[in-house]
Every structure is written in structure tokens, then in C-alpha cells.
Amino acid sequence: MQTTGWLLYKKEDAVSNNAYIEWFIEECRKQDINLLLVLREELTIGVFNGKLEVKTNKKQSWPDFCVVRIVEPLLNKQLEMLGIKVFNSSEVSYLCNNKAVTHQKMAALGIPMVDTIFLQSDQLGDHLPMHPPFVMKEATGRGGKQVYKITDSAHWQTVRQKVRAKDVIIQDSAVQAGKDLRVFVVGDVIVGAVLRSNKADFRANFKLGGEAEWYELSQEEARMVRSIIDSFSFSMVGIDFLFSEDGKLLFNEIEDVVGSRTLSIVSDVNILAKYVKLIKKEMKERI
Q: What is the dotted CATH code of the domain comprising 116-172?
């Protein structure tokens, strides 16, 4: 019997990622997997008559697995508790989608990073938490959004009023501005790395106008990435690093719902073909 999976997206994101979704579905078809797009808005999760359930508005067969392209660890966990294989797992989703948690885990592994303070939004008082300039990030922000570079006390007073997330992190800004590295990982394999730079912004994100080029990891850099990969069960993620002023890698974040536009631009690597191969392998191991 053919394996069936759900590719879960929010409706708005599905529209903007239509080409990626079609590519994903086609790669699955090539490897004899039936992948269906299912929108988050079509699902209701919770407890009904004392039992965990995921209800859908449409009449369709229950999936063998789900690829969750939504930042909602609770959804991943609900699916897992119902016996469905989830890519990425709820554990990885939780790790990746709170920057404070991610930095805790990386520090425990001895991965270098800038000085980082963990705070909750109601702890953001008049007093500067660190000597400026420094960077404040909402712990659940993505894509370079909800990231602010604080230059002085007046700027701090303005920005702290904008924070809506419960958790924030404050970080030293002693790094090379507008430059970072994304390492793409599928399973336990380093697929490739992309150097991103932006001369007009301290954030290097490609969607914010940055540029991208292929980057060859040194042996030392690859060992650092390997130490992270070996500590978690990733499906597909992007591990991001900043550069210290002397060119050393400093951990920044891990993207759970990672896009691969920059990798496709700078190389001929078909990361989705590799991802689908991993999914097929792991599903066979469940039989």
C-alpha cells in the first residue's frame, strides 16, 4: 500500500510557498509517496469525550506521517500522541522555536555564542539590561522579524514597549553585522552551507534583501555542526551561525520550518529529494 502523508501549512503561508509545496509533492510522487496539502485552518485539535483527537473539515484518509511546516509544537505533539510520525518531531520543534531554550541546549553542548540574557517581557524595565549596542529578540520570532538592535537608552524605552512575546533574549552585538551562515541538515547529514550577507541591515536574512553564496565549511566548523547534529534527532533544519569579529562561528539559532531558497540559488543540491528519501526510510523502519 502506498504511504500517504500530510503537508501541513497555514493558509497564508501555503499561498506564498506554492512553488515549494508543488516541488515537495512532486519529489514525493517520484519516490512513491502520496503527499497531500492540508491547511491548519481545516484542523481542530483537542480532547473530545475524554480522548485526544485531530479533526479535519475534509473527508480524507488518516495519514501515515505529517510534515509540519507550522510553528506549533503542540500540534506536532498531538499528532505524535495519536501514533502519527511527525517531521520534525515535537521535541525538535520545541527546541528550535524558542531561542532561549535553543541557547540553553547549545551552551550545555559547549557551542560558542555571544553573551545572552533570558528575560520575560514583564521584566523589561527602564534599566538597560546590557551596555549598548545590543540586540533584543523575541524568543519565538522568525525570519529576522521581532529583532531589534538597541543603540541607546531612548531607543530601548521605545522598543521595549513593542514587545508582545512572553520570552525575549538580549544579546551582545560584538559580531560582524549583516553576515551569517546557514547550514542545511537532513537527518544526520550536512547537506550544504550558505553564507548570507546584507550591507544595508544588521540582519543577513535573504528575505530582507540579503545576498547568498555557497560556503565550504572548514574541518573545525564541520566538527562544531556535527556535535549539534549528533545530539538531536533532526529531520530537516537550518542551523544558523553569526561570525565573531575575528571570523569564528558563533551559534545563532536553529530553524525548524526551514526554507531552502538560498541553497537552490547557489547550488544544484535537491534538498527535498534527500528529505523525502529520509522520510521514506524512516517510514519503512516503522513497519
A: 3.30.1490
pLDDT tens-digit map of 72-86: 999 999 999 999 999
Q: Does residue 206 register a pLDDT over 60?
A: no
* DSSP per-residue string spanning the chain: --EEEEEEE-HHHHHHTHHHHHHHHHHHHHTTEEEEEEEGGGEEEEEETTEEEEEESS--PPPSEEEE-SS-HHHHHHHHHTT-EEES-HHHHHHHT-HHHHHHHHHHTT-----EEEEEGGG--SS-SSSSSEEEEETT--TTTTEEEE-SHHHHHHHHTT--SSEEEEEE--EEEEEEEEEEEETTEEEEEEEEE-TT-S---GGGT-EEEE-PPPHHHHHHHHHHHTTS--SEEEEEEEEETTS-EEEEEEESS---HHHHHH----HHHHHHHHHHHHHHHH-
Domain 98-112+175-268 -> CATH class? alpha beta
Segment 38-64, tens digit of pLDDT:
999 999 999 999 999 999 987 778 899
